[in-house]
Fold:
Amino acid sequence: MRKILTMLSSLCIFVCCSQENNASKTTEPQLKNILLADPTIFYENGNYYLYGTTGGDTPLNGQGFMVYTSTDLKKWNGPAGSQNGLALKKGDSFGDKGFWAPQVLKCKNIFYMIYTANENIAIASSNSPLGPFKNESQKPIIETGNQIDPFIFIDEDGKKYLYHVRLTNGNRIFVAEINDDLQSIKPETLTECISGTLPWENTQNVPWPVTEGPTVLKHVGLYYLIYSANDFRNPDYAVGYATSKSPYGPWEKAVESPIISRKNVKQNGIGHGDVFWDKNKKMHYVLHTHFNESTVSPRKTGIIFIDFIDDKIKVDSKSFRFLNLE
Structure:
């Protein structure tokens, strides 16, 4: 009898301890992925501001652009925009749907957000990275055709260039000089940069090839155009780059592209992001992936280290990690 009581007592202790351990596990904070596609990170005065195309089942989806904040790129808070989490909200903006692919930059102490809505490009301004960003004009920057995925590059001589994607016989990347007020382009400068002509850029061999999500940098006198190719729903969506001696091209595609893909990062649909430098001057690329191996959306946000090695862009594929809310 004593043996039986001892065994029952031990069993009770084991069960109670197991329940306590399970309870402690369930009370631990669970990491929550940030669900933004086409992301960009803007750094200002010790703070990182993350924007992108809204995804997931949220009331803010399709209402503008959310912003998340961090001081260390590891712990993120938000959405922290000045208007119920939104840095820019529908009604203050051009367009009423398809709020995609924002970029934020600072010029003469004013913050600008250039973005896509209604498959056109517009720009809003604010006194704070948190917003509210508002449009001076209810007209798009380019009033003919359809274009998406804007990126403004400011050269060393002060000239400003609008890289963007025009929807014409495929998603093709173009550039035009943009006027100093950032509200219109110089149409006579409009020039095609690249389209999807290589096997890795069109793995499904579709009649509408896709190159999109441009980011342009200048390093040691050479211009670098980082872009994504394939339909974003394709697991082979990936990132490559091209170089030129002029902001207009001609562009020579890097033979080592794609530099970020599911082959080296092990994530489906990885791409369409932006370059930023952290407070220690280390170079990163923020981008999105598919939600998981079988589901595209909502897309998840992550970052990866990249750097210039001689005249090439190299990627530390092992550094990739998702961004999570606290």
Remarks:
- Helices lie at 2-27, 262-265.
- Residues 7 and 229 are 64 Å apart (CA to CA).
